[in-house]
Each structure stands twice: as C-alpha cells, then as structure tokens.
Amino acid sequence: MTPHTKRPEYLLRQLRHLRTTGLVESVDRRASRLGRCELLWHVTPAGCEVVEASSAVTTRSYRMSTRAAASQLQEHTLAVVDTGITFTKWAEHLGDECGALDWEPELAHRVREGDNRMGDDAFLIPDAVLRYTHTTQEGRRQMLTFFLEVDRATMQVARLGQKLSTYARYATYTPLAGRRRQARGAREAWRDRYPVFPRLLIILSGAGPAALARRTTDLRALAAVDPRLSQGGLLRAGVTTAELLKEKGPFAPVVTPLLGPPELTNVLLTPFQTT
C-alpha cells in the first residue's frame, strides 16, 4: 500500500504501469500461504539503472532476473524482506528511524586476498546490512548497524557455524598493504565502511519453537569452541526468531547471545568479555 490510500488497487495499478515500461516484473509465488495466486514483484535490470541513477541506493553489479525470482530461494528472499519490514514497522512505532532505504541485501565484504576474486571463501555476504537509529528513554540517539542472517532451518547448523567464523575473520581482516594504504597505515577493512563493527543478528524461522530452541543451543555450542569467536572480543552476535522479533520488537528481551550466559537481551547485545 501507499501512504495515499488504504486500497491496494492503487499500488497494483502503479506496478502494472511500471511493468509496461519494463522497469518491474512479477512472478508467481511458489507456495502461496493464502491458498490463491500471489504475485511477487521485482525490479528489472532497466529499473535498477533508473533507481541507481538517483544516487538514493548503492550501485550493485547483481541484477535480479525472473528466473532467479522464481527459484527455490524465493522463500528465503521473502524472509529477509519480512525481517527488514519488521524493523521499519517497529521503528515507526517507537519513534526511531529505519526506512526502506536503510537496509541492503547481500552486500559483499572481502575477507581474503588472492587471485580468485570469486572464491567461496573470498567474501562474506550477509543476507542484509541494516542501519537503525534508536532514541533511548533518556533522549540519547544510537546509530546502529546490523549484519542480518536469516535462517529458515533448511541448512545444517554446522554450515551456519562456518559463516559465523567468517564474520569473526572479517572483524580482523586487514588488506595487503598498497601504496595508499602504506601512507595511512594498515587497518581492518571494515573501518572503511562502518564507524564500529556491526552487530550480528541471526533470525530463525521455518520450524516450531522447540526445533528453533535446539538450533539456538547448537549455534551457541559451535560459537563456544570457535577460537575466532570466543577470543576475538569484537563480534557481538545473538540469535532470535522472526516470530519474537515481530511480536515484541527489537528492544524487548528476545535475543540470546551467542557467547556468554544465555540470558535474553535485546538487539544492542552488550559485549561479552572473555576471560
């Protein structure tokens, strides 16, 4: 819907007009939960060029295709979108700032040097990077950045654990010295993109509460034995569920830290100090 009407017909007319101009396209949802046909809309490569020309969004080499939009990754993509929408809705409810342009899916972060620029272990690619400005009860503004990982319980926990290790590797990754870098001194790559290292939030869905609780326990066990995570001290990471996040909001006690005592906290994830 748009702010100008409570009727979805207006938005549908606009989308259909954009489709005639080649700027957007639609595909059927693979498994509609409503028992009827649902259309999923995506921006075409031509539409991407128009949007990126406005300088309002980050220019990206990746372009969505109709084939990709209709693939088996469709539900995961929708889960990532739903997570972003949850944050924007709670921001509006709490008087915070987080809008449609404050989260970006699948931003690549280099974590390894070498000639193989597209190697599986050369980049860290979060499901999304989200920026959120929170105003505390005391009136203090907090500018927060999150790495979001959305897990629909379709992959082995061990694979997700490997990605956790990659996040920790990115926290300490320093590119090889070049002429310009030598002049200003070597430093971690993330400092060129973020004022502080982003918090990592893992959002679970796709299974019942008991199964997701076991998944959380398994993730904590993997984190506890990974020296990159337990000894690095920089990575603040926690696990929640899409249902809890949507129902109670990001600043309720809905997040289980990956390290330290398992007491619930919120998305601020106070750093855990190892001994």
Please provide a written account of the structure.
- This protein has 275 residues and is an alpha+beta fold.
- It has 2 domains: 1-71, Arc Repressor Mutant, subunit A; 74-275, no CATH class.
- Helices cover 36% and strands 18% of the residues.
- The chain has 9 helices and 10 strands.
- The protein has helices spanning 8-20, 45-53, 66-69, 74-94, 157-172, 179-184, 209-224, 227-232, 242-248, and strands at residues 24-28, 39-43, 103-105, 109-110, 123-124, 128-135, 141-151, 199-204, 237-241, 256-257.
- The strands form 3 sheets. A 6-stranded mixed beta sheet has the order 3-6-7-8-9-10, with helices on both faces. It has a two-stranded antiparallel sheet with strand order 1-2.
- The protein is globular and about 55 Å long.
In short:
This is Replication-relaxation family protein. The protein has helices at 8-20, 45-53, 66-69, 74-94, 157-172, 179-184, 209-224, 227-232, 242-248; strands at 24-28, 39-43, 103-105, 109-110, 123-124, 128-135, 141-151, 199-204, 237-241, 256-257.
Derived structural class: alpha+beta
Low-confidence regions:
none
Question: Taking Cα atoms only, what radius of gyration do you get, to the nearest Å?
Answer: 20 Å
- Principal-axis shape equals globular
What proportion of the residues is helical, as a percent range?
Answer: 25-40%
